[in-house]
Amino acid sequence: MRACPDALFCIGCLALTLEMQESLISLARSADLKIEKSDEIVITGGFGRLQNFLRKCIIAVLSYGPMPKHIAFIMDGNRRYAKFRSIKEGTGHRVGFSALMANLVYCYEMGVKYLTVYAFSIDNFKRDPSEVQSLMELMEEKINQLLKNIDLINKVNCKINLWGNLDLLSEPVRVAAQKLMECTTGNTGLVLSVCMPYNSTSEIVNAINRVCSERREILQGEHAGSHNGHAASNGVHSEISVDDLDRHMYSAGCPDPDIVIRTSGETRLSNFLLWQTTFSHLQNPDPLWPEFSFRHLVWAVLKYQRAYPYLEQNRKLVKKQL
Known about the structure:
By secondary structure, the chain is of the alpha/beta class. It has ten helices and six strands, in the order ααβααβααβαβααββα. The protein has helices at residues 5-30, 45-62, 78-84, 89-110, 129-148, 150-155, 171-184, 200-227, 242-248, 294-321; strands spanning 70-74, 114-118, 159-163, 191-195, 259-262, 281-283. The longest helix is centred in the middle third of the chain and has 28 residues, at 200-227. The two termini are 25 Å apart.
């Protein structure tokens, strides 16, 4: 099912109105009116109520078309955002965190079930040590901020996962991250998966190692059983299947992304979810990540809806070949 032209026109008009409201809110901020702080999500006052109403209208119209269940973001452009505005480099990442929280709420309102973000690549450890340390401190600060507001996270029933080699993180960040996952493990709503420190090559190698370790334990158990007079089951195959690897990916139990969005206009996946994105709709909008707003998310979903018949046709074709 595709969004009809009338629906597209309505969404376009509403999105344009919403864009005008965002501009008015920016002007209001400059005039020191009482409107949301950078780390808040819900806007208060008359402007906020109008914007929230328009957002609900747009989502209602958008829902007539096929909606994505899983959206993945490569959050690119934080440093350039700071550079273009001649502000401290770390400030760009802080504004980027606010953009993440806002888009988390937008996806929740749209009914998206899974949201995955590329927060920190293993390759980022090659950057200047002072920048890496600054990012680690920012991660710890924001994770602790989420822990302080854990009641709000639990209220929207959000489950938070961290995908990656957590052993590479500094101890304070790793401890805070594990505590955050434990606090939300029982939630059954939107699943936010934060990839840090992560790359797809490491994920695949980790999955292969875990399958091999699993097979080795089974064979050792059978070998011990045969020495005790029990017959070996011979149920272990030497080949490693796609299903075996799927079970041991960080993304096990999570559907593949319907949309992968890399902000700032870059077209590279940069070693992100290479295993899971065969049939994903890849998009590279121009805004830097801190600039990515609700209207950009709406256009992303509309592009996905237009491409949906083609994507489904490809999925069905591959299933027939298997």
